[in-house]
Amino acid sequence: MFGRAPLNTPVHTHLHPGPIRDISGKPIRLVSYNIQVGMATNRPLHYVTRGWRHVLPHSEHFTTLDQIAHALRGFDIVGLQEVDAGSLRSSFVNQTEYLAARAGFHYWHYQTNRRIGNIARHSNGLLSHLRPFEIVEHKLPGRLPGRGAIVAKFGLPENPLVVVMLHLALGKRARSIQLDYVAEAVRTFRHVVVMGDLNCQPQCDELNCLISKTGLREPAGQELTYPSWRPSRKLDHILVSPSLTVSRTRVIHVPFSDHLPISVEVTVPAAERLVA
Fold first, then answer.
1. Is 32 helix (H, G, I), strand (E, B) or coil?
2. Is the dihedral of CA 12, 94, 127, 151 positive or negative?
C-alpha cells in the first residue's frame, strides 16, 4: 500500500524493494476506467436526477464501488480516473484505497489534482498486483489547473515497463500541450503503456501527434466507450509500444459509470528480463 504523495510536480515516490518475480514473457492485464466517482450514471436522465451526487454522498455509493471492485478483479494494473480522495461526496472515504481493499490489490496510489473545499477531491488512481519500483506524479500543463498523470515504473530501472495513467482536458489546445508533455516524458523508454480518459476520438490531431513522436500504437482501434448505455464515442484509450505483444483488447460493458472500462493484455519479450 502506498501513502499519499505531496502535490508538487513532479513527485517521486521511491519504494523499498520487495519480493520480485520475472514477468517477462508473461501476459500483463491492464485496464483503464473512469468511474465517475461511483455515481452510477447509466442513462441520459441521470445527469439531471443524479447531478447532486457530485457534491453530496448517496446511499448507493458503496454498493456501486463494490460492483466496480468486482469488475476490476483479475487485472494486474488498473488506472482510475474521476476518483475522489476523501471528501463530503465520498463520505470522506478515499475511493482508490477502498477499491484496492475490496478488489484485493496489494498496491495502490492516488494523485489529487483539484480540491473544492471539503466537497470534492478530484483524483487519479492506480491499483496494482505488481510492485512498482517508482511512482512519479506529474501536473499536466494547461491554462486551467487540475489535470495530472501518474507514471509508474515496473521491473528493473535500466529497462522498465512504464505505465502512464492520465485524464486529459476537454479543450483540444490543452490536450495537445498535455500530450506533448507526455511524449517528452516517455520518449526514452522502450516499453510504455499510456492509458486513460483522453477526452478525444481516435485519429484526432493531438493523438496522432503523440503517436508520431513516440511510436506508440492503439491496438483497441475504434471500440467505443462513451456513453456507457449507448456508446457512440471512444474517449478512453490504451496505447502501447511496438515492443509489447498484444494478445487481447476489449471494452467491458458494465453499468457503473458513464464511461466503459477498456482493457488490454500485453507481454514483454521473454528475452528481456523484467521483474516486479
1. strand
2. negative
